[in-house]
Write a structure and sequence with these properties.
It is a single chain. α2 runs antiparallel to α3. The longest helix has 21 residues. 32% of the residues lie in helices and 18% in strands. The protein has 18 helices and 23 strands. The protein starts with 12 loop residues before the first strand and ends with a strand. It has a domain of 222 residues.
Length: 562
């Protein structure tokens, strides 16, 4: 059968001053204006992040949380800020009823009665985004939290035009939205219908008046308005009335946490920089293994190159499910997993021409193996580089599309469903505990070359985030691609026993991988359902000093600069 090939491609964005790459043009433009007005990378990133929670509310917002990496070019120092959501202090390992033995929920865990950890009030964890924004600006910003909130407040109060993608995301979630009147009132016309992006007279506007008032209160009174004032009290009242154990003390006691990010060297002069409790350890382990192989002369569809990438990632994922969890509460063997010595030991398990069957995790302790994250989580990512070449990488989330579905009445704050990220089975590394933060697949990344800023990259997409970010970095460093080509050439994901494969790699490559023993799920790339996570990033050209921005071609994200 002969048919037409539908080719979707973006051009690469190039700029000399500064650049913002984000998943919505309006938020990216707001961040770029901050850079043009003299603000630094942190100023622009936090402004963009807060705006993203308004113009892309199904992915993130002040009812969620995230992670930020920051590299200061002058000092050469890097910093990591964890403002991910936490379990309420009174949460317990057995707080959800496992209803059906052998069943699985969307994340691979056994079925939970009423999906209580996924949808509704009992799924909500303690939000961290406002705490993170305030902490980042207090330490490294030159603008106030009120100034950073300005564009977000404007988008919420005045509204913004609904795009085809916003319409699509609301449409796919209408069943959940309709369950919660306060949410339906915001996102559905007359509480019942889809907003229309295709009106001949212009698209409908999405107005979030309550959210604008809440953010204005935060702008005037500071982060404490969210964590102990009127907004926070309204959130706690909403949740406690429906069985969530969160108290005001959970909010007042929440802190965004600074730490020193970890690094692994890679090949000739590269350093990969990442934060704990993210996908970074899995990425580090994968690249330590890839370092043992040469990819000189290989291209994106070379079967051996794809095979080696798959095999290295399979080992790292096996260790992830077995060992990784919140390092503040669990003794995670990350030093071993991220070490060159461990990679030297495990590389012997990789056959250059034959796929490994069941991959065993390294033996560090006796914690029972956990379950993989799901591939349906929805987040957002943004990258910023300023005129001084300071770099920021932020990934933030409400977790699943539209989070828990719950909006705290009168606040406009759509709340996360963090609790589904925990293993509901007691006694495992990632089991629920009061105040604990769940293992996250979010993987904001920075890379240095010879100690200088080189790359900021990340992606939304649940479990698929890690593999996508790894593949983009691998494409750039090992296969010599530019940032846009690297974003478009994500061809495989090895985070499940059946390897996800992009049909665009071609029949010959697919046949060769199957001949090596890989069990492939071959799919066409498209707008929905997505095939992989959707990467976004900015690359510094070492020869010219210019910034090159890229974004997944099947998503409305964009890289813009000046």
């Amino acid at each position: 059968m002969q048919t037409q090939e539908w080719i979707i491609r973006r051009s690469e964005s190039i700029a000399e001053g500064g650049m913002v790459a984000a998943k919505h043009p309006l938020a990216a433009e707001a961040g770029l204006r901050v850079l043009q007005d003299g603000g630094n990378a942190v100023d622009a990133a936090i402004t963009t992040a807060l705006a993203m929670g308004v113009v892309e509310p199904y992915m993130s917002g002040i009812g969620g949380g995230g992670f930020m990496l920051y590299h200061e070019a002058e000092s050469g120092e890097s910093h990591f800020l964890d403002y991910f959501m936490a379990a309420p202090g009174n949460a317990t390992p057995d707080m959800y009823e496992i209803e059906t033995a052998g069943a699985t929920d969307s994340l691979g865990f056994r079925g939970i009665k009423d999906d209580a950890n996924l949808i509704g009030h009992r799924a909500v964890g303690v939000p961290g985004l406002i705490a993170g924004a305030a902490a980042a600006l207090d330490r490294f910003g030159t603008i106030s939290l009120a100034e950073a909130l300005g564009p977000a407040i404007g988008f919420a109060g005045e509204g913004f035009p609904v795009s085809w993608y916003t319409m699509l995301m609301i449409g796919r979630s209408m069943e959940t939205i309709a369950r919660f009147p306060a949410t339906a009132e915001i996102f559905l016309k007359d509480g019942r219908f889809l907003p229309n992006a295709g009106n001949p007279t212009g698209p409908d506007k999405l107005v979030q008046s309550d959210l604008a008032r809440s953010m204005q209160q935060i702008a005037e009174g500071g982060a404490s308005v969210f964590y102990g004032g009127a907004v926070g009290q309204a959130i706690v009242d909403e949740l406690s009335a429906h069985g969530n154990p969160m108290t005001l003390a959970d909010l007042t006691g929440y802190e965004a946490e600074w730490s020193t990010p970890r690094r692994v060297s890679y090949r000739d002069g590269y350093e990969l920089v990442f934060g704990p409790n993210t996908g970074g350890t899995t990425l580090a382990e994968t690249f330590n293994l890839l370092e043992h192989f040469s990819f000189a002369g290989k291209n994106a569809t070379d079967p051996e190159a794809l095979h080696l990438f798959i095999e290295a990632a399979k080992i790292a994922y096996a260790d992830r499910w077995q060992h990784l969890a919140d390092e503040r509460t669990v003794d995670v063997p990350w030093r071993q997993l991220e070490s060159k010595a461990y990679a030297q030991q495990r590389v012997a398990d990789i056959d250059r021409m034959k796929a490994t069957g069941a991959v065993k995790a390294g033996q560090f302790g006796n914690v029972p193996a956990g379950a993989p994250e799901g591939d349906g989580g929805c987040t957002t990512h943004l990258s910023v580089i300023d005129r001084h070449r300071n770099m920021v990488s932020i990934t933030q989330t409400n977790n699943m599309v539209f989070g828990s579905g719950v909006t705290a009445a009168g606040t406009g704050v759509l709340l996360n469903d963090t609790m589904v990220l925990f293993d509901p089975n007691p006694g495992r590394a990632n089991s629920i505990a009061g105040g604990k933060r769940p293992l996250s697949s979010m993987t904001p990344m920075l890379a240095l070359k010879d100690g200088k800023p080189f790359l900021t990259v990340g992606a939304p997409g649940g479990r698929l985030i890690i593999g996508t970010v790894m593949k983009v970095i691998h494409n750039i460093i090992d296969l010599g691609m530019g940032i846009q080509e690297a974003c478009d050439q994500v061809l495989v994901d090895a985070s499940s026993p059946k390897i996800m494969a992009n049909a665009a790699m071609g029949e010959a490559t697919i046949a060769a991988l199957k001949q090596m023993g890989h069990d492939l799920a071959v799919r066409e790339q498209g707008f929905l359902p997505r095939l992989f996570a959707t990467p976004t990033g900015i690359l510094v050209n070492a020869q010219t000093g210019k910034l090159h921005g890229g974004a997944d071609s099947y998503h409305p994200g964009v890289a813009i600069g000046y």
